[in-house]
Design goal:
7 strands, Rossmann fold, seven-stranded mixed sheet, 34% helix
Length: 218
Amino acid sequence: MRSLITLSIILFTSLNFSEPYSTQIALLKYNGGGDWYANPTSLKNLAHFCNDNLGTNIDPDYPTVEVGSFDLFNYSFVHMTGHGNVIFNDAEAENLRNYLLAGGFLHIDDNYGLDPFVRPSMKKVFPELDFVELPFSHEIYDQFFVFKSGLPKIHKHDDKPPQGFGLIHEGRLVCFYTYECDLGDGWEDRAVHKDPPEIRQAALKMGANLIQYAFTQQ
């Protein structure tokens, strides 16, 4: 059986398809009361941007997938966001772990207020791992677009510098956590947050880097 990674490379590099879209990225639905649905237009716009700039063929009509669902394994890139509480039960934590070990990639975007909840939740998924801040030299910042100073700052939040944290399992980045950045808000329709074009472009370019990295990493 081909791994998620192998399938991702095929989907990323093939440009002739019989179907209108060849792949999808998914939004993670979790329990606990946090608003996992916070940015309804963000993944649609990111898909369009990647299709236009990277030559991908991502369906802008993205699915929602629950943490404990086997459907999780259908997607090479899963996005998680929100402001509030996150709870993974034992079965959900095991399913998410197995997905990530099988080659999946999780992007967590703190939409402000997620940090105190997502860290213990991910500790349940990988008890043996801690989030580590990735250096600006990491390849996730040097894909189709180059970010020499790391993540762009999209929204003020607590006015701290943006940070990119990773969970690294046996040398592979399985989860990338963007903190004090708010990429997802920058991906949303301009009318939602009224961000200037250069801010939205920075967010979308960094998002495209995440997609390219997740789809092609070994």
